[in-house]
Amino acid sequence: MFRRHRRLRKNPIIRDMVRETVLNPSDFIYPLFVVEGENIKEEISSLDNNYHYSIDRLPEAVKEIKDAGVKSVILFGIPDHKDEVATSAFEENGIIQKAVRKLKELDSELYVITDVCMCEYTSHGHCGILNGHEVDNDETLKYIAKIALSHAQAGADMVAPSDMMDGRVEAIRNILDENGFKNVAIMAYSAKYCSAFYGPFRDAADSAPKFGDRKGYQMDPANVREAMLEIEDDIKEGADIIMVKPALPYLDVVRLARDKFDLPVAAYNVSGEFAMVKAAAKAGLIDEKAIVKEMLTCIKRAGAGMIITYYALDICRWIKEDFK
Ligand code: PBG
Predict the structure, then answer these.
(1) CA gap 152, 273 in Å, rounded
(2) pTM of the entire structure?
């Protein structure tokens, strides 16, 4: 006798009852881009319906985020000056530091995560301090730690190093603890691949490397065992949350990380993944809402407890509609 699987698919009620993965607004983290200047709310040409905000226009961003039901953001900054050592990344009045203070003033309950990296702030566009054409790992650690500390001092709840230097989680944990920021959490971009899917983000953040590529520090897309080593080390160094990035082509990595480790796992549904869906939707080739729901459900099903996505506001609105 065969099993009648279709009994449990008979109508929406029973389908809802047996559903294994359900999206909640608290699953999503919204990437927010802040720029220097005044009165700026400008759509990002490579990321439809996402905006560059100047500090004075952040009240509108916060209202939209709150209205959508999103509880947490990850901040990216576009500074007005760049140099070899990314000074604008750790200044007290750098763009991120000002934005964190402003967001906390506008809504102390908004959970503020900061991306800790140097590529938006260096004149050469690499994620660290150069020694010739190489990024010097250990020299970079000092700067990464300083950047993270400055974010904590501004009031960030969590820092997220995305530079892929070895030892950065330990360097950040140490400097935060030494300065009384024991409760500032670290979400490590642990398995961050050297991916072509970051293209639209690099346009949005003006962070493309001026020469070469990031293959010397970001991971080879072909490797998965190495990802487990990266994650293991970040956990040993004190990460609170581990991340896999990008998401969709790397769901095997997400699943393995979920099965192997007990820390919360995040996935970053990156700019290229977003842009492909947008382009196909605009061309009338797919049903955007249905695709986005499916895609995000599948990232969660693969094992990600939290998802960073440029669709965060939309998906939270759509979830609310579904429950009406
Ligand atoms: C900074 C950083 C990048 C992204 C997040 N943090 C770009 C990169 O590594 O080149 C990419 C995010 C996206 O594509 O959505 N290093």
Answers:
(1) 30
(2) 0.97
Give the span between the Cα atoms of 296 and 97, in whole angstroms: 31
**Whole-Å CA distances, 235 to 29, 239, 257:** 21, 5, 12
pLDDT digits (tens, 9 = 90+) for 81-131: 999 999 999 999 999 999 999 999 999 999 999 999 999 999 999 999 999
For 252-300, the DSSP string reads: HHHHHHHHH--S-EEEEE-HHHHHHHHHHHHTTSS-HHHHHHHHHHHHH
Q: Which residue has the tokens 């953040």?
A: 205
49-76: per-residue pLDDT in tens? 999 999 999 999 999 999 999 999 999 9
* CB hemisphere CA count around 142 (13 angstroms): 7
Q: Which sequence spans correspond to the domains of the chain?
A: 21-322
- How buried is residue 145: exposed, middle or buried, by Cβ count under 10 Å (0-12/13-18/19+)? buried
pLDDT for residue 323? 77
Say if residue 12 is exposed, middle or buried (CB neighbours under 10 Å; 0-12, 13-18, 19+). exposed
Please give the distance, rounded to the nearest whole angstrom, from the Cα atom of residue 73 to the centre of ligand 1. Answer: 15
Choose which CATH entry (3.40.50.300, 3.20.20.70, 3.30.420.40, 3.20.20.370) describes domain 21-322.
Answer: 3.20.20.70
Which of 201, 218, 268 for a ligand 1 pocket mutation test, highest count of atoms within 8 Å of Cβ?
Answer: 201
Taking the C-alpha atoms of residue 193 and residue 289, their distance in angstroms, rounded to an integer, is: 27
Of ligand 1's listed atoms, the one at least distance from the Cα of 268 is 15
Active-site position among 102, 245, 293, 300: 245
Matching residue, tokens 């050592």: 85
